[in-house]
Design brief:
By secondary structure, the protein is mostly helical. It has 6 helices and no strands. Helix 2 crosses helix 3.
Length: 150
């Protein structure tokens, strides 16, 4: 049992969960090419639905494995630990990062990402892929113990 987990362990778990977004590229360029035999640019509505289902299963599996790994090796979440109140400085840094992210995605997408993602998708595709499992991956990053580097 690890008595105190170093901040680098939190960093690696966060990077791994962030890296899970790259599973979509694996799905598009390897798995779906084998299954669907078509380029993503030429997907029909049914093939887009299959893409969403594949991504949901891949991300759900990854989330489960990451949670089991962190529980077994680092005993996350720590039972009975009191949560520290989030400082004003942490809220300001978080808000600044959020605003910066929104500005960058607006420049890249020429719209808000949520609007761009919703275009051309059914409600099922949008909810299943982008606002259930992507949010779970992001929540894994933010839900980890906050680093006290300062």
């Amino acid at each position: 049992m690890v008595k105190e987990v170093k901040w680098t362990k939190y960093l690696w778990l966060s990077l791994l969960s962030f890296g899970a977004f790259m599973l979509e590229l694996l799905s598009i360029f390897a798995i779906e090419v084998i299954i669907l035999h078509v380029d993503i640019q030429n997907y029909t509505m049914q093939q887009r639905s299959i893409h969403c289902i594949i991504m949901v299963f891949m991300w759900a599996f990854f989330i489960g494995v990451l949670l089991l790994f962190s529980r077994k090796h680092y005993h996350f979440p720590e039972k009975g630990s009191k949560r520290d109140k989030i400082s004003s400085k942490s809220w300001i840094v978080t808000l600044a990062c959020f605003i910066g992210c929104k500005i960058m995605t607006f420049i890249d997408w020429h719209t808000l990402k949520i609007v761009g993602e919703a275009q051309g998708k059914t409600v099922f595709q949008f909810c299943a892929q982008y606002y259930i499992f992507e949010v779970l991956l992001v929540t894994l990053n933010t839900g980890k113990k906050r680093l006290k580097l300062c």
